[in-house]
Specification:
By secondary structure, the protein is of the alpha/beta class. The chain folds into two domains: 133 residues, Aspartate Aminotransferase, domain 1, CATH 3.90.1150.10; 240 residues, Type I PLP-dependent aspartate aminotransferase-like (Major domain) (Aspartate Aminotransferase, domain 2, 3-Layer(aba) Sandwich). It contains eleven helices and 14 strands. The chain has an eight-stranded mixed β-sheet with strand order 2-9-8-7-6-3-4-5, sandwiched between helices. Helix 3 runs parallel beside helix 4 and helix 3 crosses helix 7. The radius of gyration is 21 Å and the shape is globular. The structure holds pyridoxal-5'-phosphate (PLP).
Length: 403
């Protein structure tokens, strides 16, 4: 049957999302791999009440076909929210509800990329975005990150050499997988570069409300004067991923193209869920809920940062996230994080993480790894990091013996 499949779906080429979370059944297993939110913090009772309210209010009509763009009340609430926290002035008509942020990435790729089109991504990059982009067979240009976001000099150099780059994908707030946040100055300069070199920016920001040090920075979209930035976010990390609800903000031709491909993909969003989320937002203070989340996640982040300093060998480097779920660890160049995980760290220490390879479009970086602290209590983070630190020390000393 393989000869009948589209190249983009060839099962012999594994998806960037495949095999990420090796299963370890040991009692001692501690996994720093999944970037899932902590389900003990899900507002289940309030959401259940909101579903009842939505059904009571709209009755059978709630279950009827609606519009491709999605629930108008929720779109207005989101337009207000991005104005308040992101300094983006927009209207409900510019908001499109999506099946998680993931569908937003897919819709943007579908609207913009022909096979072979040039796409710039900051690296390392969110694995799910690479998996989505891969299906459209782009020509990738990897642009490295620095401590305050994408390396704009490297980006400009790439743009000079490849002026046909159409789209840049970035996660500016508490980036997955590094935890890095782009400075406000860089956000402004990035839009200026997009205007100069004529490309679209996809600003993907599901973690922007989960800052542990300061309020969210202005969205990149707030500096957009030509309608070339698409803002994308999601309820997955601030409410629950099972709602499968994200949203994007776009203008003009981009908005029209996204609505066109959206209609062909699935006709419309899940109106029942969206009406329930709208009822939840009316009856509850989302910012108060987010404050509660950040208090918990901040403690987990603190435990992780403390453990990195206390237990990791001095030969490794790591990021210091000011929000979000992730830390990025760079090992000496001759160590392969994937090999180490399979051959020693998982079997001997029952610790898992995600090795670097899948976060690079060409799968060509091996000496780094992503640690997630979002699903673990501080004690488990401490215990797991101590074991991981010991394994890394042993691996480094085995390859760099002290003479
Ligand atoms: C950067 C980024 N974008 C998008 C997503 C997709 O999330 P969802 O589809 O659940 O909104 C994730 C999920 O982890 C993510 O980290």
């Amino acid at each position: 049957m393989k000869n009948l499949l589209a190249t983009r779906a060839n099962p012999d080429v594994s998806s960037a999302l495949a095999g990420l979370f090796p299963h370890d059944t040991s009692d001692q297993a501690i996994s720093f791999a999944p970037g899932s939110p902590n389900q003990q913090l899900f507002p289940v009772a309030a959401m259940q009440a909101a579903f009842n309210t939505a059904i009571d209010q709209a009755g059978a009509g709630l279950f009827q076909y609606q519009t491709a763009q999605g629930n108008a009340t929720l779109r207005q609430q989101l337009a207000d929210r991005i104005h308040k926290w992101g300094q983006v002035t927009t209207t409900a008509d510019n908001v499109v509800l999506t099946v998680g942020g993931q569908q937003g990435i897919d819709l943007v790729a579908k609207a913009l990329l022909n096979p072979g089109d040039e796409l710039a991504v900051e690296t390392p990059a969110y694995i799910g975005a690479l998996a989505a982009f891969d299906l459209y067979q782009p020509r990738y240009h990897a642009v490295p990150l620095t401590t305050d976001g994408i390396d704009l000099n490297a980006l400009e150099d790439t743009l000079r050499r490849h002026p046909k780059i159409k789209l840049l994908y970035t996660v500016p707030d508490y980036h997955n997988p590094t935890g890095i946040t782009m400075s406000t100055t860089k956000r402004q300069q990035l839009v200026a570069l997009a205007n100069q070199y004529d490309f679209v920016i996809l600003e993907d920001t599901p973690y922007r409300d989960l800052g542990y040090e300061h309020a969210p920075l202005p969205a990149i979209k707030s500096f957009d004067t030509q309608g070339r930035v698409i803002f994308l976010s999601s309820f997955s990390k601030i409410l629950m991923p099972g709602l499968r609800t994200g949203w994007l903000v776009a203008d003009g031709d981009l908005l029209a193209a996204i609505l066109k491909v959206r209609l062909a993909s699935d006709l419309e969003a899940n109106n029942v869920v969206h009406a329930a989320i709208a009822a939840y937002l009316t009856a509850n203070d989302l910012d108060e809920h987010i404050q509660n989340l950040t208090q918990h996640y901040r403690r987990q982040r603190d435990a992780m940062v403390h453990a990195l300093a206390a237990y990791f060998p001095e030969e490794v480097q790591y990021t210091r996230p000011a929000g979000g779920f992730f830390d990025w660890v760079t090992l000496p160049a001759d160590l392969d994080a994937g090999e180490l995980l399979t051959h020693t760290i998982q079997p001997q220490a029952h610790i898992t993480y995600v090795p670097a390879t899948n976060f690079y479009p060409n799968r060509d970086v091996h000496n780094a790894l992503r640690l997630s602290y979002s699903g673990l209590a501080p004690q488990a983070i401490d215990a797991g990091m101590r074991r991981l630190g010991d394994e890394l020390k042993a691996a480094i000393h085995a390859t760099h013996p002290v003479v």
